[in-house]
Amino acid sequence: DFLFFWGAVFLITTTLVALLKKENKELTPTKEETKGITDTYRLLFSIIKMPAVLTFCLLILTAKVGFSAADAVTGLKLVEEGVPKEHLALLAVPMVPLQIILPLIISKYTAGPQPLNTFYKAMPFRLLLGLEFAFLVWWTPKVKHEGGFPVYYYAVVLLSYALHQITLYSMYVAIMAFNAKVSDPLIGGTYMTLLNTVSNLGGNWPSTVALWLVDPLTVKECAGAQEHTCGTTHAAEV
User: Which residues cross the membrane (predicted)?
Assistant: First the structure.
């Protein structure tokens, strides 16, 4: 019902904008090097072929491999270990003010001539938090009792998530600031969108691979059926 309501609101408002909003033809458009889709893609390929851009794209495509598993799998493993989904969802609520405030604070440090310094400094802490998340998953079944989980467990999870958000936003805001800084103002939209797309891809493909590798890399033991192995999904179901 929630999604249906806001989907309807979205459709109505965008339709009204399309019907009622008129372009101001009196304003002279800013000079652009591109005039159409073909020119835009030709320009994108010329940008990608630049040695500095190629090196940067290679870096941001691989920079997030180290913490992809922790980011993608931790929540699923906590649910698998018995943490209720609704409790994890509630823990996301205190994160909202933090997510609003963090970019404002971090932007002060990324406004200088070297915004990527914040990115570099946050990376080792985010890698360490990946180890902390692994410990959290290992610790979860040990603190579980018949009534669920103690309050201090949720406090640790909340603190872990808060620290993770700080490192995540430090890297995110820093890379966005750098992309904005190096993009040519004449073709800023095209240039910056390309870099941001590569940056987003650099976060998505490692998470996809991490999720795909969960089953092959998970060791399963069959309790009460020693002659069977649980190496495959089918064998585990049997």
Answer: 6-22, 43-67, 87-106, 118-139, 151-175
Q: Which of 48, 66, 68, 44 is nearest to 58 (CA)?
A: 48
- Please give the span between the terminal C-alpha atoms of the chain, in angstroms, as a whole number: 38
Pairwise CA distance, residues 114 & 13, whole Å: 40
Q: CA-based Rg of the chain, rounded to a whole angstrom?
A: 23
Q: What is the pLDDT of residues 82-128, one digit of tens each?
A: 899 998 888 888 888 988 898 888 888 888 788 889 999 999 999 99
pTM: 0.77
Question: Which tokens in the block code for residue 131?
Answer: 């180890």
Kindly list the structural domains of the chain, giving each domain's residue range(s) and its CATH number in brackets, ordered by start: 39-216 (1.20.1250)
Span of 27-31, 71-75, 116-120 with lowest mean pLDDT: 27-31
The region that residue 145 occupies, defined by phi over 0 for left and psi between -120 and 50 for alpha, beta otherwise, is beta
Do 212 and 229 contact (CB within 8 A), yes or no? no
Residue 231, class by beta-carbon neighbours within 10 Å (0-12 exposed, 13-18 middle, 19+ buried)?
A: middle
